[in-house]
Protein backbone atom coordinates (compact mmCIF):
# COMPACT_ATOMS: atom_id res chain seq x y z
CA UNK A 1 0.00 0.00 0.00
CA UNK A 2 1.37 3.45 -0.96
CA UNK A 3 1.85 6.47 1.29
CA UNK A 4 -1.42 7.97 0.03
CA UNK A 5 -3.30 4.80 0.98
CA UNK A 6 -1.74 4.74 4.44
CA UNK A 7 -2.76 8.37 5.01
CA UNK A 8 -6.34 7.58 4.06
CA UNK A 9 -6.41 4.48 6.28
CA UNK A 10 -5.03 6.44 9.23
CA UNK A 11 -7.60 9.19 8.67
CA UNK A 12 -10.48 6.70 8.59
CA UNK A 13 -9.11 4.98 11.70
CA UNK A 14 -9.26 8.28 13.60
CA UNK A 15 -12.90 8.73 12.54
CA UNK A 16 -13.90 5.22 13.67
CA UNK A 17 -12.05 5.37 17.02
CA UNK A 18 -14.16 8.22 18.39
CA UNK A 19 -14.96 6.41 21.64
CA UNK A 20 -11.88 4.21 21.88
CA UNK A 21 -9.71 6.50 24.04
CA UNK A 22 -10.36 7.48 27.63
CA UNK A 23 -7.25 9.17 29.00
CA UNK A 24 -6.93 9.66 32.78
CA UNK A 25 -6.60 13.28 34.06
CA UNK A 26 -6.06 12.09 37.64
CA UNK A 27 -2.80 13.85 37.84
CA UNK A 28 -4.74 17.15 38.25
CA UNK A 29 -7.31 15.90 40.70
CA UNK A 30 -6.59 12.71 42.53
CA UNK A 31 -3.31 11.81 42.59
CA UNK A 32 -0.91 13.90 43.88
CA UNK A 33 0.55 13.07 47.26
CA UNK A 34 1.98 9.79 46.06
CA UNK A 35 1.97 10.53 42.35
CA UNK A 36 -1.14 8.46 41.73
CA UNK A 37 -1.07 6.32 38.59
CA UNK A 38 2.38 7.34 37.50
CA UNK A 39 3.93 6.35 40.82
CA UNK A 40 2.23 3.04 41.61
CA UNK A 41 3.74 -0.29 40.64
CA UNK A 42 2.22 -3.76 40.27
CA UNK A 43 2.93 -5.83 43.36
CA UNK A 44 5.00 -8.34 41.41
CA UNK A 45 7.16 -5.60 39.80
CA UNK A 46 8.13 -3.40 42.80
CA UNK A 47 11.83 -2.49 42.69
CA UNK A 48 12.97 -1.73 46.23
CA UNK A 49 16.25 0.04 46.70
CA UNK A 50 18.78 -1.80 48.88
CA UNK A 51 18.49 0.74 51.68
CA UNK A 52 14.68 0.43 51.67
CA UNK A 53 14.85 -3.35 51.87
CA UNK A 54 17.31 -3.13 54.75
CA UNK A 55 15.14 -0.60 56.52
CA UNK A 56 12.07 -2.83 56.15
CA UNK A 57 13.97 -5.76 57.65
CA UNK A 58 15.03 -3.65 60.65
CA UNK A 59 11.49 -2.35 61.16
CA UNK A 60 10.08 -5.90 60.97
CA UNK A 61 12.44 -7.01 63.71
CA UNK A 62 11.35 -4.10 65.93
CA UNK A 63 7.65 -4.84 65.32
CA UNK A 64 7.97 -8.58 66.00
CA UNK A 65 10.42 -8.38 68.95
CA UNK A 66 8.46 -9.18 72.16
CA UNK A 67 10.45 -6.77 74.34
CA UNK A 68 9.82 -3.76 72.07
CA UNK A 69 8.15 -0.86 73.88
CA UNK A 70 4.70 0.25 72.69
CA UNK A 71 6.05 3.60 71.47
CA UNK A 72 8.88 1.98 69.44
CA UNK A 73 6.45 -0.51 67.90
CA UNK A 74 4.03 2.27 66.91
CA UNK A 75 6.87 4.34 65.41
CA UNK A 76 8.03 1.29 63.44
CA UNK A 77 4.49 0.63 62.14
CA UNK A 78 4.21 4.25 60.98
CA UNK A 79 7.61 4.13 59.27
CA UNK A 80 6.67 0.83 57.60
CA UNK A 81 3.47 2.44 56.28
CA UNK A 82 5.31 5.53 55.00
CA UNK A 83 7.69 3.38 52.92
CA UNK A 84 4.78 1.57 51.27
CA UNK A 85 2.67 4.72 50.80
CA UNK A 86 3.89 5.48 47.25
CA UNK A 87 4.07 1.87 46.07
CA UNK A 88 1.42 -0.24 47.79
CA UNK A 89 -1.29 1.96 49.36
CA UNK A 90 -3.22 -1.13 50.54
CA UNK A 91 -0.21 -2.30 52.55
CA UNK A 92 0.37 1.23 53.87
CA UNK A 93 -3.28 1.37 54.96
CA UNK A 94 -2.99 -1.91 56.86
CA UNK A 95 0.03 -0.80 58.89
CA UNK A 96 -1.41 2.68 59.47
CA UNK A 97 -4.56 1.13 60.94
CA UNK A 98 -2.48 -0.92 63.37
CA UNK A 99 -0.45 2.15 64.35
CA UNK A 100 -3.59 4.27 64.87
CA UNK A 101 -5.35 1.71 67.08
CA UNK A 102 -2.27 1.07 69.24
CA UNK A 103 -1.44 4.78 69.52
CA UNK A 104 -5.00 5.54 70.64
CA UNK A 105 -4.95 2.80 73.26
CA UNK A 106 -1.56 4.04 74.53
CA UNK A 107 -2.38 7.79 74.24
CA UNK A 108 0.88 8.18 72.26
CA UNK A 109 0.52 11.62 70.63
CA UNK A 110 3.50 11.40 68.23
CA UNK A 111 2.27 8.06 66.93
CA UNK A 112 -1.23 9.49 66.48
CA UNK A 113 0.19 12.47 64.56
CA UNK A 114 2.07 10.24 62.08
CA UNK A 115 -0.88 7.87 61.64
CA UNK A 116 -3.33 10.72 60.95
CA UNK A 117 -0.85 12.23 58.47
CA UNK A 118 -0.63 8.93 56.54
CA UNK A 119 -4.41 8.51 56.59
CA UNK A 120 -4.78 12.05 55.23
CA UNK A 121 -2.58 11.09 52.28
CA UNK A 122 -4.45 7.83 51.68
CA UNK A 123 -7.87 9.54 51.82
CA UNK A 124 -6.59 12.23 49.44
CA UNK A 125 -5.50 9.62 46.90
CA UNK A 126 -8.93 7.95 47.20
CA UNK A 127 -10.76 11.23 46.54
CA UNK A 128 -12.32 11.41 50.04
CA UNK A 129 -11.16 15.00 50.53
CA UNK A 130 -13.32 15.97 53.52
CA UNK A 131 -12.06 12.97 55.51
CA UNK A 132 -8.49 13.78 54.39
CA UNK A 133 -8.79 17.35 55.72
CA UNK A 134 -10.00 15.96 59.04
CA UNK A 135 -7.02 13.62 59.39
CA UNK A 136 -4.50 16.29 58.34
CA UNK A 137 -6.01 18.72 60.86
CA UNK A 138 -5.74 16.08 63.60
CA UNK A 139 -2.12 15.43 62.60
CA UNK A 140 -1.29 19.15 62.87
CA UNK A 141 -2.89 19.33 66.34
CA UNK A 142 -0.84 16.37 67.61
CA UNK A 143 2.38 17.67 65.99
CA UNK A 144 1.85 21.03 67.70
CA UNK A 145 1.17 19.26 70.98
CA UNK A 146 4.45 17.33 70.77
CA UNK A 147 6.46 20.28 69.39
CA UNK A 148 7.26 18.50 66.10
CA UNK A 149 7.36 21.53 63.78
CA UNK A 150 8.80 19.52 60.87
CA UNK A 151 5.82 17.16 60.88
CA UNK A 152 3.54 20.19 61.12
CA UNK A 153 5.22 21.90 58.13
CA UNK A 154 5.09 18.74 56.01
CA UNK A 155 1.36 18.40 56.77
CA UNK A 156 0.74 22.01 55.73
CA UNK A 157 2.29 21.15 52.34
CA UNK A 158 0.03 18.08 52.07
CA UNK A 159 -2.97 20.26 52.82
CA UNK A 160 -1.84 22.78 50.21
CA UNK A 161 -1.80 20.07 47.55
CA UNK A 162 -5.20 18.79 48.67
CA UNK A 163 -6.79 22.26 48.49
CA UNK A 164 -5.30 22.71 45.00
CA UNK A 165 -7.04 19.54 43.78
CA UNK A 166 -10.34 20.86 45.15
CA UNK A 167 -9.76 24.28 43.49
CA UNK A 168 -9.55 26.23 46.76
CA UNK A 169 -6.70 28.36 45.47
CA UNK A 170 -6.43 30.92 48.27
CA UNK A 171 -6.30 28.13 50.85
CA UNK A 172 -3.71 26.29 48.73
CA UNK A 173 -1.30 29.21 48.84
CA UNK A 174 -1.97 29.89 52.52
CA UNK A 175 -1.05 26.35 53.58
CA UNK A 176 2.20 26.34 51.55
CA UNK A 177 3.13 29.74 53.00
CA UNK A 178 2.61 28.37 56.52
CA UNK A 179 5.01 25.53 55.75
CA UNK A 180 7.51 27.97 54.21
CA UNK A 181 7.42 30.19 57.31
CA UNK A 182 8.19 27.23 59.60
CA UNK A 183 11.10 26.03 57.45
CA UNK A 184 12.56 29.54 57.20
CA UNK A 185 12.14 30.20 60.94
CA UNK A 186 14.04 27.01 61.81
CA UNK A 187 16.55 27.50 58.94
CA UNK A 188 15.82 24.16 57.25
CA UNK A 189 16.95 24.89 53.71
CA UNK A 190 15.91 21.60 52.16
CA UNK A 191 12.33 21.97 53.42
CA UNK A 192 12.33 25.60 52.30
CA UNK A 193 13.40 24.61 48.78
CA UNK A 194 10.78 21.86 48.62
CA UNK A 195 8.03 24.33 49.58
CA UNK A 196 9.27 26.98 47.14
CA UNK A 197 8.94 24.36 44.42
CA UNK A 198 5.34 23.69 45.47
CA UNK A 199 4.51 27.40 45.34
CA UNK A 200 6.23 27.81 41.97
CA UNK A 201 4.20 24.90 40.60
CA UNK A 202 1.03 26.55 41.94
CA UNK A 203 1.78 29.79 40.05
CA UNK A 204 2.64 27.84 36.89
CA UNK A 205 -0.81 26.25 36.90
CA UNK A 206 -2.34 29.73 37.30
CA UNK A 207 -0.31 30.79 34.21
CA UNK A 208 1.55 33.39 36.29
CA UNK A 209 4.86 32.38 34.76
CA UNK A 210 6.85 35.31 36.15
CA UNK A 211 6.05 34.28 39.74
CA UNK A 212 6.48 30.60 38.87
CA UNK A 213 10.00 31.21 37.53
CA UNK A 214 10.88 33.36 40.55
CA UNK A 215 9.98 30.67 43.11
CA UNK A 216 11.55 27.82 41.11
CA UNK A 217 14.81 29.79 40.72
CA UNK A 218 14.91 30.43 44.49
CA UNK A 219 14.46 26.71 45.10
CA UNK A 220 17.16 25.94 42.53
CA UNK A 221 19.68 28.19 44.28
CA UNK A 222 19.12 26.43 47.62
CA UNK A 223 19.41 22.93 46.14
CA UNK A 224 22.55 24.01 44.28
CA UNK A 225 24.13 25.25 47.51
CA UNK A 226 23.21 21.96 49.22
CA UNK A 227 24.39 19.92 46.21
CA UNK A 228 21.12 18.02 46.47
CA UNK A 229 20.99 16.19 43.13
CA UNK A 230 17.46 14.90 43.67
CA UNK A 231 16.15 18.42 44.34
CA UNK A 232 18.15 19.86 41.43
CA UNK A 233 16.65 17.22 39.13
CA UNK A 234 13.09 18.04 40.22
CA UNK A 235 13.41 21.84 40.02
CA UNK A 236 15.16 21.81 36.62
CA UNK A 237 12.30 19.62 35.42
CA UNK A 238 9.82 22.18 36.78
CA UNK A 239 11.63 25.01 34.98
CA UNK A 240 11.60 23.02 31.76
CA UNK A 241 7.85 22.56 32.14
CA UNK A 242 7.35 26.32 32.50
CA UNK A 243 9.34 27.12 29.36
CA UNK A 244 7.50 24.38 27.50
CA UNK A 245 4.20 26.07 28.47
CA UNK A 246 5.69 29.33 27.14
CA UNK A 247 6.57 27.48 23.88
CA UNK A 248 10.27 28.29 24.37
CA UNK A 249 11.26 24.78 23.45
CA UNK A 250 15.03 25.35 23.25
CA UNK A 251 15.11 26.58 26.84
CA UNK A 252 12.77 23.81 27.92
CA UNK A 253 15.17 21.29 26.36
CA UNK A 254 18.14 22.78 28.23
CA UNK A 255 16.41 22.49 31.62
CA UNK A 256 15.04 18.99 30.94
CA UNK A 257 18.55 17.89 29.94
CA UNK A 258 19.99 19.31 33.19
CA UNK A 259 17.24 17.54 35.12
CA UNK A 260 18.26 14.26 33.48
CA UNK A 261 21.96 14.82 34.24
CA UNK A 262 21.25 15.41 37.93
CA UNK A 263 18.86 12.48 38.01
CA UNK A 264 21.61 10.15 36.76
CA UNK A 265 23.43 10.91 40.04
CA UNK A 266 20.46 9.51 42.02
CA UNK A 267 18.62 6.19 42.16
CA UNK A 268 15.25 7.65 41.16
CA UNK A 269 14.60 5.78 37.92
CA UNK A 270 10.87 6.61 37.96
CA UNK A 271 11.63 10.34 37.66
CA UNK A 272 14.19 9.48 34.96
CA UNK A 273 11.41 8.05 32.79
CA UNK A 274 9.57 11.38 33.01
CA UNK A 275 12.69 13.44 32.14
CA UNK A 276 13.40 11.28 29.06
CA UNK A 277 9.82 11.70 27.91
CA UNK A 278 9.97 15.49 28.44
CA UNK A 279 13.14 15.76 26.35
CA UNK A 280 11.44 13.76 23.59
CA UNK A 281 8.52 16.22 23.66
CA UNK A 282 10.84 19.19 23.09
CA UNK A 283 12.46 17.43 20.13
CA UNK A 284 9.08 16.65 18.60
CA UNK A 285 7.81 20.20 19.06
CA UNK A 286 10.96 21.51 17.34
CA UNK A 287 10.46 19.18 14.38
CA UNK A 288 13.42 16.89 15.26
CA UNK A 289 11.44 13.69 14.91
CA UNK A 290 14.27 11.11 14.84
CA UNK A 291 15.70 12.44 18.11
CA UNK A 292 12.20 12.53 19.61
CA UNK A 293 11.64 8.87 18.72
CA UNK A 294 15.03 7.91 20.19
CA UNK A 295 14.32 9.54 23.59
CA UNK A 296 10.75 8.27 23.70
CA UNK A 297 12.00 4.73 23.09
CA UNK A 298 14.53 5.16 25.91
CA UNK A 299 11.72 6.32 28.17
CA UNK A 300 9.60 3.36 27.08
CA UNK A 301 12.40 0.84 27.74
CA UNK A 302 13.03 2.17 31.26
CA UNK A 303 9.30 2.31 32.05
CA UNK A 304 9.01 -1.29 30.86
CA UNK A 305 11.88 -2.31 33.16
CA UNK A 306 10.22 -0.58 36.13
CA UNK A 307 6.74 -1.89 35.36
CA UNK A 308 5.37 1.67 34.95
CA UNK A 309 2.24 0.93 32.91
CA UNK A 310 1.02 4.53 32.87
CA UNK A 311 4.36 5.80 31.53
CA UNK A 312 4.42 2.98 28.96
CA UNK A 313 1.02 4.11 27.70
CA UNK A 314 2.18 7.72 27.58
CA UNK A 315 5.33 6.79 25.60
CA UNK A 316 3.28 4.81 23.08
CA UNK A 317 0.95 7.77 22.54
CA UNK A 318 3.94 10.09 22.03
CA UNK A 319 5.46 7.65 19.53
CA UNK A 320 2.14 7.61 17.67
CA UNK A 321 2.13 11.43 17.46
CA UNK A 322 5.72 11.55 16.19
CA UNK A 323 5.18 8.84 13.57
CA UNK A 324 2.07 10.68 12.39
CA UNK A 325 4.12 13.86 11.97
CA UNK A 326 6.59 11.83 9.89
CA UNK A 327 3.63 10.57 7.84
CA UNK A 328 4.40 7.00 8.93
CA UNK A 329 0.73 6.31 9.53
CA UNK A 330 1.08 2.55 9.92
CA UNK A 331 3.44 2.92 12.87
CA UNK A 332 1.27 5.73 14.25
CA UNK A 333 -1.80 3.47 14.10
CA UNK A 334 -0.02 0.48 15.69
CA UNK A 335 1.36 2.50 18.61
CA UNK A 336 -1.98 4.21 19.18
CA UNK A 337 -3.71 0.82 19.42
CA UNK A 338 -1.04 -0.49 21.82
CA UNK A 339 -1.48 2.60 24.00
CA UNK A 340 -5.23 2.01 24.15
CA UNK A 341 -4.78 -1.64 25.16
CA UNK A 342 -2.40 -0.63 27.96
CA UNK A 343 -4.84 2.00 29.17
CA UNK A 344 -7.68 -0.52 29.41
CA UNK A 345 -5.44 -2.79 31.48
CA UNK A 346 -4.36 0.13 33.69
CA UNK A 347 -7.92 1.43 34.17
CA UNK A 348 -9.24 -1.99 35.23
CA UNK A 349 -6.37 -2.48 37.70
CA UNK A 350 -6.80 0.98 39.23
CA UNK A 351 -10.57 0.47 39.60
CA UNK A 352 -10.04 -2.74 41.57
CA UNK A 353 -7.34 -1.10 43.71
CA UNK A 354 -9.54 1.92 44.48
CA UNK A 355 -12.45 -0.29 45.53
CA UNK A 356 -10.16 -2.30 47.81
CA UNK A 357 -8.67 0.83 49.29
CA UNK A 358 -12.11 2.40 49.84
CA UNK A 359 -13.18 -0.73 51.73
CA UNK A 360 -10.12 -0.41 53.95
CA UNK A 361 -10.85 3.23 54.65
CA UNK A 362 -14.43 2.36 55.58
CA UNK A 363 -13.11 -0.24 57.99
CA UNK A 364 -10.89 2.40 59.63
CA UNK A 365 -13.90 4.67 60.10
CA UNK A 366 -15.83 1.79 61.63
CA UNK A 367 -12.95 0.98 63.98
CA UNK A 368 -12.78 4.57 65.15
CA UNK A 369 -16.51 4.50 65.85
CA UNK A 370 -16.10 1.28 67.81
CA UNK A 371 -13.32 2.85 69.86
CA UNK A 372 -15.53 5.86 70.57
CA UNK A 373 -18.35 3.52 71.64
CA UNK A 374 -16.00 1.61 73.94
CA UNK A 375 -14.81 4.84 75.51
CA UNK A 376 -18.39 5.93 76.04
CA UNK A 377 -19.24 2.58 77.61
CA UNK A 378 -16.22 2.92 79.90
CA UNK A 379 -17.49 6.29 81.04
CA UNK A 380 -20.91 4.76 81.67
CA UNK A 381 -19.29 1.91 83.61
CA UNK A 382 -17.41 4.40 85.74
CA UNK A 383 -20.65 6.27 86.35
CA UNK A 384 -22.38 3.04 87.31
CA UNK A 385 -19.58 2.14 89.73
CA UNK A 386 -19.88 5.53 91.38
CA UNK A 387 -23.63 5.11 91.69
CA UNK A 388 -23.17 1.65 93.16
CA UNK A 389 -20.70 2.99 95.72
CA UNK A 390 -23.13 5.75 96.60
CA UNK A 391 -25.87 3.17 96.89
CA UNK A 392 -23.78 1.13 99.25
CA UNK A 393 -23.30 4.19 101.46
CA UNK A 394 -27.01 4.83 101.33
CA UNK A 395 -27.60 1.18 102.25
CA UNK A 396 -25.65 1.78 105.41
CA UNK A 397 -27.67 4.92 106.10
CA UNK A 398 -31.13 4.23 104.73
CA UNK A 399 -31.57 0.45 104.30
CA UNK A 400 -31.36 -2.30 101.71
CA UNK A 401 -34.59 -1.58 99.90
CA UNK A 402 -33.48 1.85 98.71
CA UNK A 403 -30.28 0.36 97.25
CA UNK A 404 -32.23 -2.37 95.46
CA UNK A 405 -34.55 0.10 93.72
CA UNK A 406 -31.70 2.39 92.74
CA UNK A 407 -29.69 -0.37 91.11
CA UNK A 408 -32.77 -1.59 89.22
CA UNK A 409 -33.36 1.90 87.88
CA UNK A 410 -29.74 2.21 86.73
CA UNK A 411 -29.91 -1.08 84.85
CA UNK A 412 -33.11 -0.05 83.09
CA UNK A 413 -31.67 3.33 82.08
CA UNK A 414 -28.51 1.73 80.82
CA UNK A 415 -30.41 -0.83 78.76
CA UNK A 416 -32.59 1.92 77.28
CA UNK A 417 -29.52 4.06 76.51
CA UNK A 418 -27.71 1.19 74.83
CA UNK A 419 -30.77 0.34 72.75
CA UNK A 420 -31.05 3.95 71.61
CA UNK A 421 -27.36 4.14 70.78
CA UNK A 422 -27.50 0.92 68.76
CA UNK A 423 -30.44 2.27 66.77
CA UNK A 424 -28.66 5.58 66.12
CA UNK A 425 -25.48 3.72 65.13
CA UNK A 426 -27.33 1.54 62.63
CA UNK A 427 -28.96 4.56 61.02
CA UNK A 428 -25.61 6.36 60.87
CA UNK A 429 -23.89 3.37 59.25
CA UNK A 430 -26.61 3.08 56.58
CA UNK A 431 -26.38 6.81 55.82
CA UNK A 432 -22.59 6.74 55.52
CA UNK A 433 -22.59 3.64 53.31
CA UNK A 434 -25.05 5.36 50.95
CA UNK A 435 -22.88 8.48 50.92
CA UNK A 436 -19.77 6.45 50.13
CA UNK A 437 -21.57 4.65 47.30
CA UNK A 438 -22.80 7.92 45.81
CA UNK A 439 -19.32 9.45 46.15
CA UNK A 440 -17.74 6.47 44.36
CA UNK A 441 -20.27 6.78 41.51
CA UNK A 442 -19.63 10.52 41.28
CA UNK A 443 -15.84 9.97 41.15
CA UNK A 444 -16.29 7.46 38.32
CA UNK A 445 -18.46 9.94 36.39
CA UNK A 446 -15.91 12.69 37.00
CA UNK A 447 -13.14 10.49 35.58
CA UNK A 448 -15.32 9.61 32.59
CA UNK A 449 -16.11 13.30 32.02
CA UNK A 450 -12.46 14.38 32.07
CA UNK A 451 -11.49 11.44 29.89
CA UNK A 452 -14.15 12.42 27.33
CA UNK A 453 -12.81 15.97 27.22
CA UNK A 454 -9.28 14.66 26.66
CA UNK A 455 -10.58 12.39 23.93
CA UNK A 456 -11.85 15.50 22.12
CA UNK A 457 -8.44 17.13 22.57
CA UNK A 458 -6.68 14.06 21.14
CA UNK A 459 -9.08 13.78 18.19
CA UNK A 460 -9.09 17.45 17.19
CA UNK A 461 -5.33 17.83 17.65
CA UNK A 462 -4.67 14.90 15.36
CA UNK A 463 -7.22 16.16 12.81
CA UNK A 464 -5.54 19.56 12.84
CA UNK A 465 -2.14 17.94 12.14
CA UNK A 466 -3.65 15.84 9.34
CA UNK A 467 -5.29 18.87 7.74
CA UNK A 468 -1.98 20.76 7.73
CA UNK A 469 -0.16 17.79 6.18
CA UNK A 470 -2.79 17.38 3.48
CA UNK A 471 -2.60 21.08 2.59
CA UNK A 472 1.20 20.83 2.26
CA UNK A 473 0.89 17.80 0.00
CA UNK A 474 -1.72 19.58 -2.15
CA UNK A 475 0.63 22.53 -2.62
CA UNK A 476 3.47 20.21 -3.66
CA UNK A 477 1.36 17.99 -5.95
CA UNK A 478 -1.09 20.09 -7.91
CA UNK A 479 -2.35 17.05 -9.81
CA UNK A 480 -3.85 15.74 -6.54
CA UNK A 481 -5.69 18.98 -5.81
CA UNK A 482 -9.23 17.64 -6.23
CA UNK A 483 -8.96 14.37 -4.17
CA UNK A 484 -6.92 16.12 -1.48
CA UNK A 485 -9.44 18.95 -1.27
CA UNK A 486 -12.16 16.36 -0.68
CA UNK A 487 -10.08 14.79 2.09
CA UNK A 488 -9.55 18.22 3.67
CA UNK A 489 -13.32 18.74 3.68
CA UNK A 490 -13.72 15.36 5.39
CA UNK A 491 -11.18 16.44 8.00
CA UNK A 492 -13.02 19.75 8.48
CA UNK A 493 -16.24 17.81 9.02
CA UNK A 494 -14.39 15.80 11.66
CA UNK A 495 -14.07 18.96 13.76
CA UNK A 496 -17.84 18.94 14.12
CA UNK A 497 -18.37 17.18 17.42
CA UNK A 498 -22.16 17.34 17.86
CA UNK A 499 -22.34 13.64 18.81
CA UNK A 500 -19.21 13.95 20.97
CA UNK A 501 -20.63 17.05 22.64
CA UNK A 502 -23.98 15.36 23.29
CA UNK A 503 -22.14 12.47 25.01
CA UNK A 504 -20.00 14.99 26.90
CA UNK A 505 -23.08 17.01 27.93
CA UNK A 506 -24.91 13.94 29.26
CA UNK A 507 -21.95 12.92 31.46
CA UNK A 508 -21.33 16.55 32.51
CA UNK A 509 -24.95 16.96 33.68
CA UNK A 510 -24.65 13.82 35.79
CA UNK A 511 -21.57 15.23 37.59
CA UNK A 512 -22.60 18.90 37.72
CA UNK A 513 -26.37 18.54 37.91
CA UNK A 514 -27.35 22.18 38.54
CA UNK A 515 -24.70 23.89 36.41
CA UNK A 516 -26.63 24.27 33.12
CA UNK A 517 -29.84 25.19 34.95
CA UNK A 518 -28.18 27.94 37.00
CA UNK A 519 -26.18 29.18 33.99
CA UNK A 520 -29.30 29.51 31.82
CA UNK A 521 -31.22 31.08 34.69
CA UNK A 522 -28.59 33.78 35.36
CA UNK A 523 -27.49 34.36 31.75
CA UNK A 524 -30.32 33.36 29.37
CA UNK A 525 -28.73 35.15 26.38
CA UNK A 526 -25.69 32.85 26.14
CA UNK A 527 -25.25 31.06 22.82
CA UNK A 528 -24.68 27.32 22.51
CA UNK A 529 -20.97 27.94 21.79
CA UNK A 530 -20.63 30.12 24.89
CA UNK A 531 -22.34 27.46 27.03
CA UNK A 532 -19.85 24.90 25.71
CA UNK A 533 -16.97 27.20 26.64
CA UNK A 534 -18.42 27.62 30.17
CA UNK A 535 -18.61 23.82 30.60
CA UNK A 536 -14.96 23.38 29.54
CA UNK A 537 -13.88 26.21 31.89
CA UNK A 538 -15.80 24.46 34.68
CA UNK A 539 -13.46 21.45 34.19
CA UNK A 540 -10.45 23.80 34.70
CA UNK A 541 -8.88 22.67 31.40
CA UNK A 542 -5.99 24.79 30.14
CA UNK A 543 -6.37 27.13 27.17
CA UNK A 544 -4.55 24.83 24.73
CA UNK A 545 -6.92 21.93 25.37
CA UNK A 546 -10.01 24.14 25.18
CA UNK A 547 -8.99 25.68 21.85
CA UNK A 548 -8.23 22.19 20.49
CA UNK A 549 -11.63 20.82 21.61
CA UNK A 550 -13.49 23.79 20.07
CA UNK A 551 -11.41 23.61 16.89
CA UNK A 552 -10.30 27.26 17.08
CA UNK A 553 -6.99 29.09 17.45
CA UNK A 554 -5.62 30.44 20.72
CA UNK A 555 -6.29 34.00 19.51
CA UNK A 556 -9.90 33.15 18.68
CA UNK A 557 -10.27 31.58 22.13
CA UNK A 558 -9.05 34.78 23.80
CA UNK A 559 -11.60 36.80 21.80
CA UNK A 560 -14.36 34.33 22.74
CA UNK A 561 -13.40 34.52 26.43
CA UNK A 562 -13.39 38.34 26.25
CA UNK A 563 -16.87 38.38 24.69
CA UNK A 564 -18.12 35.93 27.31
CA UNK A 565 -16.78 38.17 30.11
CA UNK A 566 -18.62 41.17 28.63
CA UNK A 567 -21.86 39.28 28.17
CA UNK A 568 -21.97 38.04 31.78
CA UNK A 569 -20.85 41.47 33.06
CA UNK A 570 -17.67 40.25 34.76
CA UNK A 571 -15.67 43.06 36.38
CA UNK A 572 -12.02 43.61 35.57
CA UNK A 573 -9.74 41.68 37.88
CA UNK A 574 -12.26 38.88 38.54
CA UNK A 575 -10.93 35.52 37.32
CA UNK A 576 -13.29 34.00 34.72
CA UNK A 577 -12.48 30.37 35.61
CA UNK A 578 -13.04 31.00 39.34
CA UNK A 579 -16.37 32.71 38.57
CA UNK A 580 -17.58 29.84 36.37
CA UNK A 581 -16.52 27.20 38.93
CA UNK A 582 -18.52 28.97 41.65
CA UNK A 583 -21.78 28.85 39.67
Task: Tell me what the structure shows.
The protein is mainly alpha-helical and 583 residues long. It has a domain at 35-358: Alpha Horseshoe (Serine Threonine Protein Phosphatase 5, Tetratricopeptide repeat). It is built from 25 helices and no strands. It has helices spanning 3-16, 26-29, 50-64, 70-84, 89-106, 109-125, 129-146, 149-165, 169-185, 189-205, 209-226, 229-245, 249-263, 269-285, 289-306, 309-325, 329-398, 400-476, 481-494, 498-511, 515-522, 528-538, 543-550, 554-567, 576-581. 35% of the residues are buried.
Radius of gyration: 29 Å
In angstroms, what separates the terminal alpha carbons? 54 Å
- CATH level-1 class of the domain at 35-358: Mainly Alpha
Q: Provide the helix percentage.
A: over 70%
Mean pLDDT: 79
Q: How many strand elements?
A: 0
- CATH level-four homologous superfamily name of the domain at 35-358: Tetratricopeptide repeat domain
CATH topology of the domain at 35-358: Serine Threonine Protein Phosphatase 5, Tetratricopeptide repeat
Name given to the CATH architecture of the domain at 35-358:
Alpha Horseshoe
Compressed to H and E, one letter per element, the order equals HHHHHHHHHHHHHHHHHHHHHHHHH
Number of helices: 25
Strand content: under 5%
Structural class by SSE content: mainly alpha
List low-pLDDT spans.
4-50, 351-355
Please give the largest β-sheet.
Answer: none
Gross geometry: globular
